Amino acid sequence: MTRPGRAGVRLARLVFGLLAAAALADAAVNSSHLGHFFSFFTVESNILGCVVLLVGGLVDPDSPGWSVLRAAATLYLTITGIVYAALLAHQDVGLISPWVNDVLHRAIPLAMLVDWVLFDPWPTTSRSAALGWLAGPLAFLVYSLIRGPVVHWYPYPFLDPRRKGGYTHVALICVILALGMALLALVISWVGDRRSAAWGPR
After folding, report:
1. How far apart are CA 20 and CA 71, in angstroms?
2. Is residue 178 part of a domain?
3. Helix/strand/coil (H/E/C) assignment for every residue in the chain
4. How far apart are CA 176 and CA 168, in angstroms?
5. Mind listing the pLDDT tens digit of every residue in the chain (202 residues)?
6. Is 151 domain-assigned?
7. Is the preceding omega at residue 121 within 30 degrees of 0, hence cis?
8. Distance in angstroms (rounded) separating the CA atoms of residues 161 and 48
9. How many other C-beta atoms lie within 10 A of the C-beta of residue 70?
10. Largest Cα–Cα distance of the chain, in whole Å?
11. Range of the structural domain that residue 62 is part of
12. Residue 143 within any structural domain of the chain
């Protein structure tokens, strides 16, 4: 059921959803290898975020399943923004247009995070369920490490075992990232719980 008084929220979601769609389309058109393009976590997380924003703007659902998907999309895009800022800001991430890079790595992650903090729906989630949201990044990691040796390409330098340190270095980085992501998932879940309690029944 759509809640009243949501016109501004829905419009903002539509605007950012369309912005994400435009950036993804531009990046895909300018990509030299679509297989590689769709193997970036940035692209995958932004596709999910784009869908969540557009559906949130057009339909504004509030079902429990939808709120969990929204939480996962927020987590994945927050991971995208943080990892880019910390590890990839000066690396080649396969995006030619500066505006596309800014939209996918900065604008959409920030928009999703702000939307999560300010507006419902938020799921009622146990801490163990929140950690289950990490299945997405874990699946991406497994896929990348299996596909990498086959196509001789890795989406990010820190996942490339051909660099100095080999698989030991990759494993260390992955452990550090996994711990950070787990903490982030718990924080996002906690924020949702707090906001839901403060918001009260709709």
Report:
1. 18
2. yes
3. CCCCCCHHHHHHHHHHHHHHHHHHHHHHHCCCCHHHHCCCHHHHHHHHHHHHHHHHHHCCCCCHHHHHHHHHHHHHHHHHHHHHHHHHCCCCCCCCCHHHHHHHHHHHHHHHHHHHHHCCCCCCCCHHHHHHCCHHHHHHHHHHHHHHHHHCCCCCHHHCCCCCCHHHHHHHHHHHHHHHHHHHHHHHHHHHHHHHHHHCCC
4. 12
5. 446 568 999 999 999 999 999 999 999 999 999 999 999 999 999 999 999 999 999 999 989 999 999 999 999 999 999 999 998 887 777 777 889 999 999 999 999 999 999 999 999 888 999 999 999 999 999 999 999 999 999 999 999 999 989 999 999 999 999 999 999 999 999 999 998 888 765 5
6. yes
7. yes
8. 28
9. 27
10. 56
11. 7-199
12. yes
**Domains: count for the chain:** 1
Neighbours of 73 (CB within 10 A): 26
In a domain, 1, yes or no: no
Other Cβ atoms within 10 Å of 62 Cβ, number:
16
How many residues can be counted in the chain? 202
